[in-house]
Write the structure tokens for this entry.
Amino acid sequence: MAESARGAKRGALALVVGAALADGHIDSLDAKAARWIPEWSAPGDPRGQISIRDLLHGQSGLSEPRYENKVGSPGLAMFIGTDLRALSLGLVPQSPPGTKQRGATAEAQVLGLVLERATGRMYAGFLSQRLWRPIGAGDAIVRLDREGGNTRTFCCIQATARDWARVGQLVLERGRVGGR
């Protein structure tokens, strides 16, 4: 997928995080992700220091799963695996949060998990309610890791070019649609 297309999907994720912030589901971009990912809150676990902002900016310090075109590759599992939640929860840091910018695939997946836990809703439903419907967009498709499973929040929103233009117009209008 072209970098601009991946960036658009992550941009939609960032907009939805902004909606969760506006709705009070997330109280601050500086809140620690471990608040919603208790699996990372053990004493001494460096992942407990990763903030929502770190994830949004691709500066969590988490290792990006290495992609190899072979069975068992964690990077390949991001795209075709059937348990993204376990893969996301098992990510390990390579550097302290906020110090290095890395590829944001894994961070976007973790951010999607935080969003689902913070809102109590599946990503697709919250995306539809808070972004897609308000801008008048048509149906879109998100890709799951398995039937009824986890959304691939790092990519894979299939929508028309017109609907992506609506998202762009929303950004240009600083979050306003039709005067609201």
